[in-house]
Amino acid sequence: MGKFRVVSLVLAAAVMGAALTSCDDGRQSAAKQAAGQLASALAARDVGGVPMQGKDPAAAQQQLAAAFKGLGAVKPAVTAGEPKVDGDKAGVVLAYDWKLAGQDWTYQTTAQLARDGDRWLTQWKADLLAPQLGESEVLTFDTTAPARADILGAGDAKLVTERPVLRVGIDKSQLAADRQADSAAKLAALVKIDPGEFAKQVKAAGEKAFVEAITLRDEPGRTPTDDQIAAVPGAITVKDSMPLAPTRTFARPVLGVIGQATAEQVQASGGTIQPGETAGASGLQAQYDSQLRGLDGVTVHAQPADLTAEKLKADPGSRRTLFTKQPVPGTPLKTTLDPRLQQLAEDELAGIGPASAIVALRPSDGAVLAAASGPGSNGYNTAMLGQYAPGSIFKTIDSLALIRQGATADLKVQCTPTLTVDGKTFQNATGYPASSLGEITVRDAYAHSCNTAFISQRDKVSQAQLESAATSLGVAVGAPRLGAPAFLGSVPGDAGSTDHAASMIGQGRVLFSPLAAAIMAGSVAKGSPVSAQLVLNPQAATTQGGPPSADASATAASAPAGAGSGSASPAPSSAGTTASPSSQPGPPLTGAEAAVLKDMMRAVVTSGHAGFLADVPGGPVGAKTGTAEFGSDTPPKTHAWIIGTHGDLAVAVFVEEGGLGATVSGPLLKNFLVKAG
Q1: φ, ψ of residue 118 in degrees (nearest 5)
Q2: Which residue range or ranges hold the NTF2-like N-terminal transpeptidase domain (predicted)?
């Protein structure tokens, strides 16, 4: 009996312990649920639905909104720890993580919960929002932007760096109210901005405000001069600096510019960019904005809700600093652009009226040394994004495709004045020499650019084989190493008989950019496909307001593209089409294939259209001219192309409405090669 009684007592104790544990688990579980609800509500900045003790939820919400208003629209991440239950009370640690201007502010507070029947209520206090926050205090934060990082070129030359500027505007404190409108109009006319709009800005500004009209480079010879500005009553200049390229036009379509962040950029940044700050507005400045901008320094204050600037000045100790973090400088963006060659290319294009471009790269490593778009491009990146029919420079691809089908440079072909394919007549370019008609070699057909000779070989190479040959020369592929948006060409893999004939002379649906043309020439010079590179140390590219991803061909939304050939009507413009890398990549160019193509490009100089390049100092020059018809005029307008190789340099020159490649683009190429040395 005694033994049985002992066992019974043990079982009773076990049952009682289980009951007590079950009771504790119930309280713990309910407290944990209440803590989680509180954390979620705080993270949403909306505690109006949280059960509370001693405080109306609506009043708590009002206090929270006032306390967090100074932190902007950003919301914190809030997590609740495991509640510590003590009878009908519990304490829970709340972990906050704010991202303010990209910086992490983390801290913990403790919330007290009270059990009311089967519910746990939050005992609301201001200090569960932030450490030691008083009932009448609110949070604010200030930011300090770091200096924007430079964009560097070859040899770490500073392409974009802080350069002196003058901010020109009206100082209203120097003018009587009845004279401000007149001065605003005079200054606006001097700096060539809208007088009416500037007058409105001056009128709307504060009584002692400085209202900026324009920012000018502080450099010799600038206009307007200091004397001209000083002659306008109330007009002043304020010295400053900002990230600028060496000149206003230097590589501008590639490098881009900065400006005041748009509302869309501020919103898309998730709090990293604050209203009123500057951000990249175009080009590499926009694409790599986060890398160049760095992170703002952040200081968070707790202060009385009624604190004014005057009160703070009188009593600096009236607010407390809860958190501070120093600015994080941006990382310079390294590029391959050579300042001398870029400026040389821009100087050559300075007098060209239509859209134009010069692209130069180093075949051995693919470095893009110059990517210049002329003034006729109106700020568009013609050099890298233009989409144009390449004309006869495409015969380089024809030739590779023919070589792969067993042809040699000495193969005899027929060069006739015209050739008709399915009712469409093709002819040679205006001025084609009669002495080069008849039976000639492929080398001579390439050197003199006989359209009909290459079209006559259309049955020996399919459209798919042309596409394959293009990719073997680095064209119509993606650009994973480039680091910037680019269009590297489009060569369709299938085409009807007439379209295929047009493709043989670089028209129809074939499209190139000047960069693609330079890559093709560079691949011949190197003896293997060139993979172009512009940005050397890319970090994660931004997306707010920036250009598309750099690892795929980009669409050129406004670049005219030629189509038709000969005297036939051209096909519709292909401007704005989306071009994708080829789905039929070919085998890489071999050294033996490249040797044949080099020989043919050299023949263009020694016996063909580009004899003017024979006296370029240094090693031998190889070249190929191109003329592509576009539009519906009679006679049609033409794009003028020429590609050239000279040592470890490959260059493409393009003029949108340029006549013949040899006579228009050719001299630009020669001048560039001679001066490039």
Answers
A1: -100, 15
A2: 31-136
Residue with tokens 């600037």: 309
Asked if 165 contacts 216 with a C-beta cutoff of 8 angstroms, the reply is: yes
pTM of the model: 0.84
Rounded CA gap, 373 and 359, in Å?
A: 9
Angle, to 10 degrees, between the axis of helix 395-404 and the axis of helix 591-606?
140
Structure-token pair, residue 24: 């504790």
The class that CATH gives domain 355-534+560-648 is alpha beta
What residue segments make up the domains of the chain, in order of their start? Answer: 27-141, 159-247, 355-534+560-648
Q: Hey, what amino acid is at 372?
A: A
CATH number for the domain running over 27-141: 3.10.450.50
3-class SS of residue 453:
helix
Query: Strand 89-100 and strand 77-80: pairing?
Result: antiparallel
Kindly list the distances between the CA atom of residue 285 and the CA atoms of 253, 381, 413, 667, in Å, as whole numbers in the listed order: 10, 14, 51, 33
* Local structure of 406: helix, strand or coil: coil
**Measured distance CA(593)–CA(405) in Å, rounded:** 12
- Per-residue confidence at 26, pLDDT binned at 50, 70, 90? confident
The length of the chain in residues reads: 677
Residue type (1 letter), 664:
V
Query: What is the rounded average pLDDT of the residues 356-375?
Result: 98
Structural domain 159-247, CATH architecture: Alpha-Beta Complex (3.90)
Output the six-digit token pair for 33.
């649920």
Report whether pLDDT(13) > 50. Answer: no
